[in-house]
Amino acid sequence: MRYRNSTRLLFTALVVGAAACADSTAPAAGVTEAMLTRDVARDAADATVRDLSYMGGMEVLVGMPLTSSPMSSTSGLGNCTWNNAGRVFDCPDITGPDGLTLSRMIGFYSGGTSQQSYDALTTDSLFFGAWLSGTITETGRTAWLKHARLYMVTGLTGSETARTWRGEGSRDDSAHVNTDDVVRTMHIASEDVTSNVVYKLPRADFPFPQSGTITHDVTVSETTPNGTGATSRSGTRHVVVVFNGTRTAAVTVGSTACSLDLVTRALSCQ
Fold first, then answer.
1. Res 102 pLDDT > 70
2. What's the rounded Cα separation, in Å, for the pair 238 and 219?
3. Quick check: helix, strand or coil at residue 53?
4. Which of 122, 104, 102 has the alpha carbon at shortest distance from 113?
5. Above 80 in pLDDT, residue 158?
6. Of the candidates 162, 223, 219, which has an alpha carbon nearest to the alpha carbon of residue 196?
7. What is the pairing mode between strands 162-179 and 182-200?
8. Phi, psi (rounded to 5 degrees) for 265
């Protein structure tokens, strides 16, 4: 897959390093700056919740324990196959109930050196690659998604007390939106960074990230029809999502403050 292969360059950088404002053009009747900000906030909120689901799903796939006990084996890899050239496991694509297709890749490391299998005594970090694509339809919004994510999770040696996730990725999303009584099409391109997102163990007691951030640097454009054709508005937004151990994460989009429920995905902005 071309999209998947194009992100492999980030993979080496992550292994080695495992260790805005609004700026818009073309004011458009129908699409306001506030609407542009809300659309970006909604898209970033959805992407953030998906990021957390990737983390949980990858841990389940590999068989990482939900308590402080070290992982015993890699039997959970199932049909994943060893890729000797990439020194990782390639896993079969899966399609979720929402119709989105997820491709996955997994690697084991000790001191930055790849391992062909997990070792409870020496494996100190795992690499995860995730590529999501497909169409999803929600109330007032149909979106076409293409996401790439490369993660490293550390803190795995011996009896664990916490796991730390770091990573980079990109999104190329389009959507048809009908909210605020305005029908519009939108395109979002985003560069995303996961920084020191910490999960404490056991997960049953600490289901939400204790700390860390996910940032989204977004370029957005929207077009809405008018009586003589169509008008467009475009701009950039810097989005920061901050975790604090609760189900509610703080979100800022430029200077706009919001809160995100990590369970229901409900987003509220000032």
1. yes
2. 9
3. helix
4. 122
5. no
6. 162
7. antiparallel
8. 70, 10
Strand partners, 256: 253
Where do we find the tokens 């609760």?
246
Residue 67, token pair as written in the block: 């308590």
Location of structure tokens 């989005």 = 239
Helix, strand, or coil (residue 60)? helix
Distance in angstroms (rounded) separating the CA atoms of residues 31 and 137: 21
Compute the 3-state secondary structure of the chain and give helix, strand, coil in percent, each to the nearest 5.
15, 50, 35
Q: What per-residue string of b and e applies to 232-244 under the rule 16 or more CB within 10 Å gives b? A: ebbbbbbbbbebe
Smallest Cα–Cα separation from 28: which of 184, 154, 140, 142?
Answer: 184
In tens, the pLDDT along 221-258 reads: 999 887 666 788 999 999 999 999 999 999 999 999 99
Q: What is the pLDDT of residue 68?
A: 53
Greater confidence (3 vs 163) lies with 163
Residue 161 has a pLDDT of 85
DSSP one-letter code for 71: P
C-alpha–C-alpha distance, residues 144 and 124, integer Å: 36
Q: What is the mean pLDDT of residues 180-206?
A: 91
Per-residue model confidence as pLDDT tens digits over 42-71: 889 999 999 999 898 888 777 776 655 555
Q: What is the largest CA-CA distance in the chain?
A: 68
Angle at alpha carbon of residue 61, lines to 55 and 67, rounded to 5°: 70
Going from the C-alpha of 96 to that of each of 148, 213, 252, the distances in angstroms are 17, 26, 30
